[in-house]
């Protein structure tokens, strides 16, 4: 029987999450530009109220999403590395450790 975490798979998933996080860079700035463009389309007529508050509030949310996306990728990388290290550390302790256990291979 072989037992282990899929460390390469987790690292690959973390790389994909990091690529998504990289794709989110600048989203807050792009959103600000889109809000400015939308507000300028009306050139003050009719008056658009609440636009600055809306933009300010949602730009903050978008900044949080960027940070969280990067944190998720970093956490997946760190967790996969830790799990891989644990597998490496314990590999020899489980191999043939008890006669009633099947031969366990940790890779």
Characterize the largest beta sheet: strand count, sense, and whether it forms a barrel: 2 strands, parallel
From the spread of the alpha carbons, the general shape counts as rod-shaped
Kindly name the structural category.
mainly alpha
Q: Work out the count of structural domains.
A: 1
Residue share in helices? Answer: over 70%
What is the chains' assembly state? single chain
Let me know the number of strands.
2
Averaged pLDDT = 80
Weakly predicted, low-confidence segments: none
Helical run tally = 3
Structure overview:
There is one protein chain. With 107 residues, the chain is mostly helical. The protein has one domain (2-106). Helix content is 73%, strand content 4%. It has helices at residues 7-24, 27-42, 51-94; strands at residues 2-3, 105-106. It has a two-stranded parallel ribbon. Helix 2 runs antiparallel to helix 3. The termini are close together. The model has no long low-confidence stretch (mean pLDDT 80).
């Amino acid at each position: 029987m072989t037992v282990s975490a899929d460390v390469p798979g987790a690292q690959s998933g973390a790389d994909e999450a990091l690529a998504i996080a990289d794709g989110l860079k600048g989203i807050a700035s792009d959103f600000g530009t889109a809000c400015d463009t939308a507000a300028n389309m009306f050139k003050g007529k009719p008056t658009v109220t609440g636009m600055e508050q809306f933009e300010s509030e949602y730009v903050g949310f978008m900044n949080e999403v960027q940070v969280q996306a990067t944190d998720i990728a970093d956490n997946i990388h760190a967790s996969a590395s830790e799990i891989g290290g644990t597998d490496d550390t314990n590999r020899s302790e489980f191999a043939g450790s008890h006669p009633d256990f099947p031969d366990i291979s940790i890779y």
